[in-house]
Amino acid sequence: xxxxxxxxxxxxxxxxxxxxxxxxxxxxxxxxxxxxxxxxxxxxxxxxxxxxxxxxxxxxxxxxxxxxxxxxxxxxxxxxxxxxxxxxxxxxxxxxxxxxxxxxxxxxxxxxxxxxxxxxxxxxxxxxxxxxxxxxxxxxxxxxxxxxxxxxxxxxxxxxxxxxxxxxxxxxxxxxxxxxxxxxxxxxxxxxxxxxxxxxxxxxxxxxxxxxxxxxxxxxxxxxxxxxxxxxxxxxxxxxxxxxxxxxxxxxxxxxxxxxxxxxxxxxxxxxxxxxxxxxxxxxxxxxxxxxxxxxxxxxxxxxxxxxxxxxxxxxxxxxxxxxxxxxxxxxxxxxxxxxxxxxxxxx
Length: 348
Fold this sequence. Notes:
The protein is about 40% helix and about 15% strand. With about 350 residues, the chain is α/β, with parallel strands linked by helices. The chain has two domains: about 90 residues, Aspartate Aminotransferase, domain 1; about 240 residues, Type I PLP-dependent aspartate aminotransferase-like (Major domain) (Aspartate Aminotransferase, domain 2, 3-Layer(aba) Sandwich). Strands 2-8-7-6-5-3-4 form a seven-stranded mixed beta sheet, with helices on both faces. Strands 9-10-13-12 form a four-stranded antiparallel beta sheet. It has a two-stranded parallel ribbon with strand order 1-11. Helix 13 packs across helix 14. The longest helix has 20 residues.
């Protein structure tokens, strides 16, 4: 190992975590021998079966490399370039996709300011004006992030209300579910209850942030919406030749509740982190801790001092507010070390 690699305790992103041993074992198993490429292999067949078990028999899943690819291509399958997507202003779709939806789909994003990252019908209603007017992009979909980029979770009733609003207005409901497992763990429900049963039409389902090495899925709950997706995925450069290495991960991820086990641990670590941070004077948790993210305001002088030892992001430089993410492999000792360091800084 190179001597110049510096390791810091990680709270920046669950993308920074390692790979769960059972996922690595599944990859190794898929590496034995030769199999037909592009998904015509037994690992992909088995993984697709797991998706139907988890999301319902009508769910059609397509594996891709990245969350951005899943979001963008999922929307491309259902939107035209003269149409628009209503989303939270802080959503990954609007803030962290480098304009990919606009570039590759041509769709216009309509960002909505929210208090906690969550959309509600009353926030969306005013944005439907101008429908049928040739001068305006036409709303086609509502996109929600579950959990939101601020770590808050939509309840099933809230999703159902958004779905009902979408149906009344001829819209589709898209879900960015990069951390959907964490939302389900928080609510104590299954993946189908949070998606198909709640009226979601198109889902980006993530695994990378919760113990997988690489791989996301686009899931359609109305097979008619997926009619052209195999071509869209190829044009979008997201069709894996050795797909079995993504498929094998998803099969292991969905088998025996590994997705839930990992998410529960990450959520529990976030709750512990928030509890310990709440004891430190001059610090305050700014959002409800409902998944695996903690948003914390702290004294400005402590931000840079802590970043010498711990890796995390500042999301609001003015206050400042930092984001601390936990993962399936976060340990209690790391949490107590961070809190001790912050407490010492505040006390000086």
